[in-house]
Specification:
The model has no long low-confidence stretch (mean pLDDT 87). The protein is 80% helix and 0% strand. It has 115 residues and is an all-alpha fold. The chain has one domain (3-111). The longest helix is centred in the C-terminal third of the chain and has 26 residues, at 86-111. The relative contact order is 0.21. It starts with a helix and ends with a helix. The chain has helices spanning 3-21, 27-38, 42-66, 70-79, 86-111. The protein has 5 helices and no strands.
Length: 115
């Protein structure tokens, strides 16, 4: 299996499971540790962290937005300058979470841990 694909799947699965019981920021040490452990290249680590964490936020948010939480998301999008568009809120939330995961994985790739 390619190193990028393996890192992406590990980040996606572990961040999805960890965020069920732990706070949102658990993706930071998770991405950092996994990228350092896998000794990923910087670009691949950033992309794997970005996509893995973003998908772990987008999928549940999109499911909730279509199955009953759209009213709350629309009200929150009204408070922000999003014009009340709940799907734009889902997209923006996933993008911000993905950037956090990508930067954490990039930091882990730059860590150059020798275990």
């Amino acid at each position: 299996m390619k190193p990028f694909l393996l890192l992406f799947l590990l980040i996606f699965l572990l961040s999805t499971l960890a965020q069920l019981w732990l706070p949102w920021w658990v993706v930071l040490p998770l991405c950092l540790g996994l990228a350092a452990w896998r000794r990923a290249a910087a670009g691949a680590a950033f992309l794997a962290g970005l996509l893995g964490v973003a998908l772990s936020w987008w999928l549940p948010a999109a499911w909730l937005n279509t199955h009953g939480a759209q009213l709350l998301a629309t009200r929150l999008a009204t408070l922000l300058p999003l014009g009340g568009n709940s799907w734009l809120l889902v997209l923006l939330g996933g993008l911000l979470a993905g950037l956090v995961g990508g930067l954490a994985a990039l930091s882990g790739a730059w860590l150059k841990v020798r275990w």
